[in-house]
Design a protein that fits this description.
Elements lengths: L17 H8 L3 E6 L6 H11 L5 H11 L16 H8 L7 E6 L4 E6 L6 H9 L4 E7 L6 H12 L4 E7 L8 H17 L4 E6 L24 H7 L11 E3 L2 E6 L2 E10 L1 E2 L4 E5 L3 E9 L4 E2 L2 E2 L3 E6 L10 E4 L5 E12 L10 E6 L2 E13 L6 E3 L8 E14 L10 E5 L6 E10 L5 E5 L2 E5 L2 H9 L1 H5 L3 H6 L2 H14 L1
Parallel strand pairs: 1-3, 1-4, 4-5, 5-6
Antiparallel strand pairs: 2-3, 7-9, 7-16, 8-9, 9-15, 10-14, 11-12, 11-16, 12-13, 12-15, 17-21, 17-23, 18-19, 18-22, 19-20, 19-21, 22-23, 24-25
Bound molecules: guanosine-5'-triphosphate (GTP).
């Protein structure tokens, strides 16, 4: 077949979705590495690339040359130098959130997200983790579990990662101390179980010496009989297909001529084929798919990750930010949602402040009401009105117009969002939706606090009302029961 460069060309037949799905399921395992500064992250990634022969000959020569004189007391090359290209770019002030490294073994291929380790780490980590199947958490065997370890594990689990490898690194510096390794393993497993993470492999390793990374560390640690890092990675599973049906967040309406109107975007969940019935949200209008076009082909199916133009069988009103979804598997549409947030900027998240929320190609105003903050040491969710930088919190989102989400654990794409401060344009938080709240519930109490779940203009009026002012004394408000809160709401509502 000649190059199919017109939208009328027919793709080689994809008679079913199976080939597309099969290709997706055999995709490389995506990894993220997290750790505190100096735990050995760069050394570990460099060592993985080196020992799996992912380093090209010219890079290898350069590594040997650049390591001369900088060698550590073991006389080994500095594997972290393999990642230095990225470092140089960072030093020039070029913003790179995440760089992806590729390596493979006989059994499988891998993509590792290499995220900068310093300031703004949380944001970069969240970016890398949002597509990862597995998290490698690095800790220094001499230091044990730190608050940073708990923070990263919590964020990774909120981002839906269910498989963890705890890489207890620099074990050579503890004289391969078995008891120390076992204590850290035990403590971490206990913590990870509290997060609901059940697949945890803990491995003692020396990234620098290459023990238990690709090659066995048996000679130095005869007491360890578990897998090497690469063996553990070969056994991990790729994340299964998303639980929800077809989702397309419309990025652009394409109208090249009178007779053609298509809706462009990347499929964010499920699959679609001509003839399928779809619904446009938030309007609720219904249509059938008549054609799926990609940049050079007409396709007879598309799956999550494909960038497509969708043509419908009738004239419907669709604009940028709308979502086109499977009619038999719809997302949640509502004015109020529960979510987890990670606060990313020094200013944190203020109580009741209005932000821009961006999810897919949709951008809308939202009022954010923090409810509680995770105490990393104990795992408790303590009541909170605001969230400081790096805090992980639970919040209520209250919209002026209908919002559309899937719970994050069912679809990472249509369940996640960022918050933008309208005054500074800074991205101040990343969030994961847990679900829709029962429709506008007015005022109620939660964790001993009174929560307003109202459209912002109504909430402002209530806050300003005499009735609320009379109740503003903190202790008094905290003592209110849900019934009293409801009474207050009823009175306030009739007052305005
Ligand atoms: N003895 C020993 N030293 C190690 C090991 N892994 C890393 N190191 C050393 O620890 C130091 C920090 O390693 P890096 O790989 O730069 O650490 P990092 O976590 O990437 O640090 P940042 O890039 O600053 O975030 C370097 O001097 C490494 O040579 C190990 O397994 N054993």
């Amino acid at each position: 077949m000649t190059a199919a460069n017109s939208a009328n060309a027919i793709a080689e037949p994809l008679s079913a979705l199976e080939p597309l799905k099969a290709a997706r399921d055999s995709r490389p395992l995506r990894l993220i590495t997290c750790g505190s500064v100096d735990d050995g992250k760069s050394t570990l990634i460099g060592r993985l690339l080196w020992d799996t022969k992912a380093v090209k000959e010219d890079q290898a020569v350069a590594l040997r040359r650049d390591s001369t004189g900088k060698q550590n007391d073991l006389g080994l090359p500095d594997f972290a130098l393999l990642l230095d290209g990225l470092q140089a770019e960072r030093e020039q002030g070029i913003t790179i959130d995440v760089a992806y490294r590729y390596f493979s073994t006989d059994k499988r291929s891998f993509i590792v997200a290499d995220t900068p380790g310093h300031e703004q780490y949380t944001r970069n980590m969240a970016t890398g983790a949002s597509t990862a199947d597995l998290a490698i958490l690095l800790i220094d065997a001499r230091m044990g579990i730190l608050e940073q370890t708990r923070r990263h594990a919590t964020i990774a689990s909120l981002l839906g990662i269910k498989q963890f490898v705890l890489a207890i690194n620099k074990i050579d510096l503890t004289n391969y101390d078995r008891a120390g390794f076992e204590k850290i393993s035990h403590d971490f497993k206990e913590f990870a179980l509290s997060l609901g993470v059940k697949q945890i492999t803990t491995i003692p390793m020396s990234a620098l010496k290459g023990e238990n990374v690709v090659y066995s560390g048996q000679a130095a640690m005869p007491w360890y009989t578990g897998p090497t890092l690469v063996e553990a990675l070969e056994l991990a599973t790729v994340r299964s297909a998303q639980a929800v049906g077809f989702r397309l967040s419309v990025q652009r309406v394409s109208r090249p001529g009178e007779s053609f109107r298509g809706y462009q975007g990347t499929v964010a969940g499920g699959s679609v084929k001509p003839g399928d019935s779809v619904m446009i949200l938030p309007s609720g209008m219904v249509a059938n798919v008549s054609k799926i076009v990609t940049f050079d082909l007409i396709r007879n199916a598309a799956v999550a990750g494909d960038a497509i133009t969708l043509v419908l069988d009738r004239q419907v009103d669709v604009s940028r930010g709308d979502m086109i979804v499977a009619i038999d598997s719809q997302p949640q549409v509502g004015l109020s949602f529960d979510a987890h947030l990670v606060a990313l900027q020094p200013e944190g998240i203020e109580a009741g402040k209005r932000y821009w929320l961006k999810s897919g190609s949709r951008r809308q105003r939202v009022q954010v009401n923090p409810v509680s903050q995770l105490e990393l040491k104990t795992g408790d969710w303590n009541p909170a009105r605001a969230l400081p930088m790096n805090a992980i919190g639970k919040v209520h989102l209250v919209f002026d117009e209908a919002a559309i989400f899937d719970p994050y654990d069912q679809n990472r794409s249509s369940g996640s969002f960022i918050l933008i401060d309208p005054d500074t344009n800074n991205t101040v938080a990343g969030g994961m939706v847990t679900g829709k709240r029962s429709e506008i519930s007015g005022i109620h109490t939660e964790d001993g606090r009174v929560i307003l779940s109202l459209p912002a203009d109504l909430a402002d009026k209530i806050m300003a009302s005499e009735l609320f002012a009379a109740r503003r004394d903190e202790a008094d408000v905290r003592r209110m029961t849900a019934a009293q809160a409801a009474e207050l709401w009823k009175n306030a509502a009739s007052d305005i």
